[in-house]
User: Fold this.
Amino acid sequence: MMTDDMTHGSPHGISVVVPVHQGERHLQAVVDELLPLVHPFLTPDRHLLQVVEIILGYDPGPDDSARVSRELAEKHEIVRPVQFSIPDA
Assistant:
């Protein structure tokens, strides 16, 4: 059973991991959707949460996802770009 006490105090910090593959055109919109969640919010089950980091995991693909990820990290302290390597075939 949930009580009102469970919604008070410090929020639980969560990390959001976004896998990126040829996502250059969509990254800004995805980050824009997540940024409001850096402020504490209640889930439907009354858990207090807060996004503490947005990890953009991109591969070295043919588009500019890497550049866009780095630019978003420069604009927003909470964004962390991470390049995944592709093993040699």
